[in-house]
Amino acid sequence: MTGGHRFWPSVTKAMLWAFLCAMGLLVIYPLFWMGLGGFKSNSQIFSDPFALPESWSFANYLTAWQATQGYMVSSLLVTLISTLTTVTISAWTAFGLTRTEIPGKPLVVGIVLGGMMLSPTVALVPLVRMLQDYGIYDTHAALILLYTAFRVPFTTFLIRAYMLDLPRDLDEAAMMDGASPGQIFRKVILPLCQPILISCVVLHILFAWNEYLFAMIFTNSPGVQTLPVGLTSMMSKQGTNFAAVFAAMTISALPIVIIFFLTQRYFIRGLTQGIGK
Amino acid sequence: MKGAAGTSTGPGRADGAPHPIRRGLGALWSLRWVAVALGIVGWFVYFPILNNFVVSTTRHDIFTGEVAQIGLDNYRRLIADPVIATALWNNTAYALLSILFQVFGAFWLAAIVEGLRSDRWRSIWRAVYFIPSAISTTVTGLLFYFIYQPGIGILDGLLTELGLEHLSRVWLGESSTAIYAIIAMSQWQGFGYSTLLFSVAIQKIPQELYDAARMDGAGSLRQVWSITMPMTREMTGMMIIVTVTGAFQVFNEVMVMTAGGPNNSSQVLGTWLFEQGFNQNDMGYAAAIGSLIFGVTMLCGVAQLWYTRHRRVLA
């Protein structure tokens, strides 16, 4: 039985339950309102904010789906590829940092993990010039590269912590049997790290799907922009068709909420190990 | 743990001491494990950030393309710029209110949730409160943009229902309320995240401590006060540092909801950097603002390092 006090006398208990429910309502109602807004007609949005939709029409959701499809594809592409590159590079690096002899290891650890402290905002100005010089400004490649570079430190930090706690008996046994470091990495360590790898995948998906700063500054054609940027530009394009914007917001939030509920366990492990936002 | 300092990288180990050249090459070859990470992080994280300091001492003429070395002029401007003062205050208000709600508020919420008897309800509440943190700030920012809108939004609707119409205003359109309306949204979005972290910290507290306290006749509030609170102090300290760092890097929510307006009243350092660099095309000055953000986040980072070094937080 894990901690917590498990008590609360009955009078306070009723009050506390009321409080928890109120907080729950505070969280859920705005989201519910957003989802409902997508079903309303535009005139109804202006007439009574609390009313339920008069007719449950999917027209706005259809409009929003068509308007956001392109952004959705970009988001998927950038998210999937950068997840793959980030987690692969980080696992590879974490193995090197915990299981091999590297000259100047403390320095390497400091450089890689130190990257966690550096804020993306500070790199913005020089990055514009760099990406333009390399000819990758306004491409998916730019976002994939940046998401990978800025998330490798944090992801390596999580995997390294996990690898440090793994017992060494197995990889030592494998080495006795003549396995090379590469084989030990692939056949022994990686399978053992599966839980933390899943946590890292989930956390990276959350990051990449929601990232706004880089996506807004380094992309400007609709075919390249990701969902968060697409949403804001849709907002200006749709003018006062707010119902469609509500629907688009709901559509872009839904996948990540579903992923959260499906992978809660891994999500929580990753977050608590890292306490990094 | 045996062999903790390392296991060999391979060739030449069997016959005792390998040839020095061979060992040197082996060491070099072993760098392959970290080369990719060092390369990409060095190139796209460290290099631009160092470069930022160089850019901050220049003025770039966008018409002639001429770059002039102007030394510390941009930094002098920084000190004299009234919007920087506003931004610094807004970031500070962000930090203080976030500490209040997302650290102390979240602690009490977690203590309440973890005090529930039902396992199922504990995990339900944790998950429900976390939902907004999983959603992008663009979506939540836009959502609250609508919530704050007079006529469409539920905030004014709610005030009207409660008979408090006189309180309603253009929340994001008035200089005195804009930044606080944004901060409020941010609390709504973030409190579940820190509640979850506190919940996990509370779960790690041994049950015996509570049992013993109960034997001694300590009430529930007393138990939270004298067991839960001190036992989660490390997490609290860590959360304060993370929250402050986050507060000085804020960008998305302000950009989406007000873009710093009205009259720059809701500018934060991040959005002012964006405005100067990308709307005014004054890259040199934007870089100087970047250096300021760097300074503040570095301070927080050092505090964090110092803190983890002194207390083993991450077990």
TrEMBL record, chain A:
Belongs to the binding-protein-dependent transport system permease family. Part of the ABC transporter complex UgpBAEC involved in sn-glycerol-3-phosphate (G3P) import. Probably responsible for the translocation of the substrate across the membrane. Residues 72-263 form the ABC transmembrane type-1 domain. It comes from Pseudotabrizicola alkalilacus. This is sn-glycerol-3-phosphate transport system permease protein UgpE. It comes from the Bacteria. One of its GO terms (biological process) is transmembrane transport. PROSITE patterns: ABC_TM1.
Automatic annotation (TrEMBL), chain B:
Coiled coil: none annotated. It comes from Pseudotabrizicola alkalilacus. The chain crosses the membrane at residues 31-49, 93-116, 128-148, 178-202, 239-263, 283-307. InterPro entries: ABC_transporter_permease, MetI-like, MetI-like_sf. This is Sugar ABC transporter permease. GO terms for cellular component: plasma membrane. Residues 88-304 form the ABC transmembrane type-1 domain. Belongs to the binding-protein-dependent transport system permease family. Keywords: Cell membrane, Membrane, Transmembrane, Transmembrane helix, Transport. GO terms for biological process: transmembrane transport. SUPFAM superfamilies: MetI-like. It is a multi-pass membrane protein. It is found in: Cell membrane. Its main location: membrane.
